[in-house]
Amino acid sequence: MKHRASARIAPTRLIATTAILLVLSGGAYALPASSDIAASTTGTALPADGDTVQQGVTIDNSGATGDPTITTQDDTTLTNNGTITSVAGSSKDALTDDGSDDGDGVTVTNNATGIIQALGTGDAIKLDDDVTIVNAGTISTVGGESAIELDKDGDVTNSGTISGATTPAAGDNSYVLRVDRGTILNQSTGVIEATGSATTLDGSGDNGSNIYAIRAGKDDPTTVTNHGIVRATGDAVSVEQGNKEGEVGGIRLQSGSSLDNYGTVETTGSIVIGADTNSDPTDDGYEIGDMYGVRIDDDGGSVHNYGTGVIRGGKHGITIDKDATGASVINEEGGVITGLNGSGVGSDAKNATTTVTNYGTITGTYNDAYAFGDGDGVDIDYEAVIYNYGTIRASGSKGTKPGEPNPSTSEGIAAGGGTIVNGDATHTDALISGADNGILIDDSNAGDAFYATQVTNYGAIRGLDGYAIKLVGSQDDTVTNYGTISGTADTSVLLGGGNDTFNMYSGSVTGTVDAGAGGADTLNIDIQNSTLSPFLLGNSHYANFEVTTITNGVVTLTDDYSSATSFTNAGALSGTGTVTTANFINNGELFAGGIASSGSALSLGTLAVTGNFTQGAGGSLNVGVSGSTSSEVSVGGTATLDGDLVVGDLESGFRADLTYTILSATGGVSGSFSNVDNELTSKLLDPVVTYNANDVTLAFDRTSTTYSSLAGSPESAALAGVIDAIEASSPTDPDIQAVLGQLASYGSGNISAALDQLAPDLSDASGITMQQLTGLFQGNVFGHLGGVRAAWSGNDGATRLASAGTDGDLTASLMGAPSYRAGTSNGLWGRGFGTFGDVASDSGAANGFSYRGGGLQGGYDIALGETSAAGVSFGYARTDFSPDRAGSDGSVDSVLVGLYGTTLAGPVDLSGQISLSFNSFKSDRLVSLGAVSAHSDYDGLAVSGSVEAGYAMTMGKAVIRPVAGLDATHLHTDSYTETGAGGYNLAIGANNDYQLRSTLGVQATGTLEPGFLGKVQPTADIRWGYDIRQADKGVTAAFAGAPGSSFTLETNSQARNALLASFGAEAFVGEPLRVGIQASGDFRSGSKAFGLGLYLRYDW
Description:
Helix content is about 5%, strand content about 50%. It is mainly beta. Among the domains are: about 180 residues; about 190 residues; about 50 residues, no CATH class; about 300 residues, Autotransporter beta-domain (Lipocalin), CATH 2.40.128. The protein has a 58-stranded mixed β-sheet that branches. A hairpin with a 2-residue loop joins strand 96 and strand 97. Helix 1 crosses helix 3.
């Protein structure tokens, strides 16, 4: 609709001409909904201060050319609730100014319903004046360089959407929001977004175009505060020549501008491969286009990413230009900065320090969809100052960058030098981790770093597939560790070629710290630890240091160690091996050998020093003795002595009769220890130190304390008196002297145990096994005779004497009304048996034992008339016994012979036997005191006689038989002398013991006829046994090398009362053959014995 001049539409005043639409006065003016500038005309709207474009009103240029839709003047406020449009095909800006600069500027408020848009190639807003823009609606361009471009002072507050979709031509740029000087506030609902791509190539295949959602501070510093979303979604092209690849980013900071980010800044597009424009195949197919969350240019700038902030770039999260000065990044706890195919933070700044302070998470990784990606957590090519209290992580890399010889590696931090602090005393969970190396300091291409480096670690530094820390170059670098450093290479920390220092104050290092070749390198150890977690020192842990100083801590030398110039110890050093150094200075505790885990005992060994050894007045040398050896310091140069000598021992004892060398020096010994501390466990000895020209020796003087005053048990007391007497006699036998020297080394706390080691075996295993074996032999005979009597019994319970070849039945009955065969019967029988048992130790003594064995026993008996039989028995058994005394064991081989007989007189039976047992004993007695075993080989004899009587009572097919018996045994063992244990060998006297035992009980025998076995007769026998007389329990012994040292000790004794039980069954397999099985037991308080036998008898 065309408006004529001076036309009035209440309540507004509107003057229109063909060429100009003027709003002449202030106030709220409502323009008609179709108030358009005619097509093909030049239209300009000049709003007065306070003008408003009402909701539903559209102002557009309808394709007009020339001037923009609305041109503002100074001192103007415009509020838009409607739509201001530069239409498609137009190069006009939707809103601009008249170019004058003589007022207070322009204020534009675009409310939630407002739209300011350029649908052509112009900008939505382009103002060259002091401008304030408050946007809650939509400001956009589809083809212009910017949605908002403010060339001078400008303040933009956005809670709506500001967007641009331009894909610029090669060499051109697009910034959706450009403020050259001023402030930008993107509120939590605000979105500032660039959706165009930097992919257009010119004829040569180059592309230098940049696309950013925000460009801040072209002329002067600009402050950007983001609570919402700043995003670039387009793609960036990769160009083979490099340096002109496409660049897409979220925010570009120039002229020292700053970003405070509480929201999200990100790129979401892809890096695409441009055309192949050269003949070099090595750079084909590599995506090296640039996509940054934030870029810092020229005069530097700063980024402060708060706890809710996320900065994410398709290549780097934040990149800092090579010409930038004074750039800094702060990432608060909870904040996230990520480079999706590069570094979390990357800096090429050459002439200034880049500072990164991190409490949150900074990550660099790679995109597996691309052929190349160099993922570093923080990558600063030149000087870096990095304070990390959170996590800096590199997740991996891929491929080789064109123009570089080696594949890229992934570092938590890569830098050209500077200062790196990882954590502090309150941030011990700080982490720097690299998929390859934790920290790499070089020139970005494996060359020398540009600056010296100081690394301080309280947290963890990890190289997951390489070094934890690698420093390249001849700078004087320092690494100080309070935390954990770990790499996967053999060398975890590799220092450079300068005068480097590694300070180990606490924590740990996994792998070797290598100071490298060149320079005078220093290792300082100042730790607070315990012997439970010692600091490990050796060439396999720390290598190529020229100066080593231990100020505090417990340090263990695990292998040879080189510290060419000097080695100073003011802590606690232990271990063996060789220290290669010109000067070894000990002002602390030196343990020649080692410290046991308890911290109270030594392990022995030799510590060698190639140069000179000096112990100051504040130092102490701790030496130990054990057996016939001692710990020693072996010096290749001179030894100068002062301070303390501490003498200790191992719990295993030593030889007090020997002299030990505790220090030797090829160049001579001067000075002496100012004090000798006696820390021996023995109260029987005092150390004596002798200084010679080239060595220092240690011997021992006997104190006045007697063994008898230290003994505990009765056994040890008896031996203590003997030892006191032997010692008083000044023996000359060297073996006895060795025993006395060994024994004297034991302290009052374990002297009783040591004396017990001198005693013979007190288990009486030989006597008790002879007794048990004799009883088993007799039991087998009486069991056999019971079977004989059972064979005489018929089905009616009568007694029958079977006689081969006799068919008639005898009419005389010895039990009831029996019928039995007349004539005689001879029989051959055999038993195989096994036995096992144990005897408990007496209270407070280790004199118990266990045993197991087995054997064969047989016999032949003949009939003596119709109701009597007699026979002969023979057998062999092998029994092994194991005393409770550790390391002792023995065996006995026994041959047994005997005569036996039985007779019946009505229901009464009477049986008796006599036997001989010839025994050969072998045993070994461990003497752990001397780590030797005493062997013995001797014989013994057992003579036994027994008688028992029974009364058979028939009850159907069962016979109940009360029984009583009496056993008498004489046990004899020969005297013998042990061998193989030197002075610990004992001469044991012969022994004769007598035993008398009564038994009383009942036996029950039944008859079963299952058919398939003929007749089966099960038997049960339960008795009470009582030892009327027991063997005298004692052993008399003497030390073989000390005649007249006889002593007697009490051996193990068994309880007098016993429960004797046996259960068995016999089957008649055909007329002449019988088989049976029997199990027996002897149960006493503190002991038990078991026997199991298989029985076979053949009659003819």
